[in-house]
Amino acid sequence: MYNQGAVEGAANTESGSRIFVYEVVGLRQNEETDQTNYPIRKSGSVFIRVPYNRMNQEMRRITRLGGKIISIQPASVLEQLNGHAAVVDAASGETASGGGNGQATPVKATSEVKGFAKPQAEEQPKNKDTKGNTMTQAKAKKAHADVPVNTYRPNAPFIGKCISNDPLVGESGIGIVQHIKFDLSGSDLKYIEGQSIGIIPPGLDKNGKPEKLRLYSIASTRHGDDVDDKTVSLCVRQLEYKHPETSETVYGVCSTHLCFLKPGDEVKITGPVGKEMLLPDDPEANVIMMATGTGIAPMRAYLWRMFKDAERAANPNYQFKGFSWLIFGVPTTPNILYKEELEEMQQKYPDNFRLTYAISREQKNAQGGRMYIQDRVAEHADELWQLIKNEKTHTYICGLRGMEDGIDAALTAAAAKEDVTWSDYQKEIKKAGRWHVETY
Q1: Is pLDDT at 104 greater than 60 in this prediction?
Q2: pLDDT category, 310, cuts 50, 70, 90?
Q3: Which listed residue (23, 211, 240, 438) is catalytic?
């Protein structure tokens, strides 16, 4: 999740211009971002560094992208408060989150969490939409004390090696998305489903400083794709977008580095981090998964743990007997990541796994527009609502933040049929640890 953090650099001293930082919420999926793959990753808030002479221009650009500026601070003030972290640079259009499924974090060795410069238990989920509902990453729970966190830090990463790097987008699909497997042999890095690892790309940034790490959701189970406890896998999309002023094509630093790794190439790995997206231990739980694009990464890990034969054999104390439902949004059929895996599991476990696609550029919603994931949720809102009311049900949302308003609207209507206020109910299940969100 591209989370709050401190601001890198107080000002652009070379140019002599003052630098301000916009805190922005609400950048969402729409016609423009659907076409350009706008590079904001996993965010309740994003922080955009803006030179004084471009403040008005950047305000207009944020408005066009559906965003709302909730605070403006001099960069120097935020640096004094928080130290070093990553922001989106409005002048260059580049984002420190780099990859399509990554996020930036502080490089301070004392940082404990995904993108925050304070311990995860202190996270404050304060960003709300205009209706007062919030669906950003919830406050981390004090539970899961035994979950491994920060075995490797930015100042002492583990040097792993790429084992394989395979394309996930089919012919005529949009963009480059890769499934990348890394060798963890010789490391102490252990993780569980729903966590992330950090990747530090090589080289220096535009300010001549070492590149910061980006966090990527892990796409494999705790045992790895080979079920030998020696690997970790990522699902990474190469970030590609047009510079807002020059229209030049810009590629993400870290995502490009990862997408073109060759077997044997070394990579700096940190982590693991994250306790928000963990699966319940109950094998009879119900699991609702809503994902867009590379937001499928943690969902794949869950599904492997639930349904893969080798995984089930490796986990005799966890034999999933509940019900899981994946609603997966992609732009085109060739962009259905892990399509063969998903459909094989659905065929093998039809009573336990339901698979629903929302293919935006090929399917139409009820109004004749593009079929996004929120439209599928609206179609099945009553059924989902009944499932969500079950105390054994956990809901996981990962991907584009633009789906949130539609999900809220659909579940609001379904709950209202029973005189239940969805926003209040959502707070209750979030507090109970049954509503899990990472959006960007």
Answers
A1: no
A2: very high
A3: 438
Angle at 297 between CA 410 and CA 276, to 5 degrees: 70
Strands in 29-154 per DSSP E: 46-51, 68-74, 88-89, 102-104
Measured CA angle at 432 (ends 320, 106), to 5 deg: 90
Q: Which domain holds residue 367?
A: 286-439
pLDDT given for residue 292 in this prediction? 95
The confidence score (pLDDT) of residue 11 equals 29
Q: Which of 45, 196, 217, 360 is catalytic?
A: 217
Burial of 356 (0-12, 13-18, 19+ CB in 10 A): middle
Active site residue 217: yes
How far does CA 265 lie from the centroid of its chain?
Answer: 25
**Domains: count for the chain:** 1
Q: Choosing from 58, 398, 404, 425, which is the catalytic residue?
A: 398
Q: Is residue 356 part of a domain?
A: yes
Catalytic residue among 2, 216, 396, 425: 216
Catalytic residue flag (residue 398): yes
In whole angstroms, what is the distance from residue 299 CA to residue 328 CA?
10
Amino acid at residue number 195: Q
Residue 372 known to be catalytic: no
Task: Give the C-alpha separation, 181 to 163, whole Å.
Answer: 5
Q: What's the CATH code of the domain at 329?
A: 3.40.50.80
3-state secondary structure of 175: coil
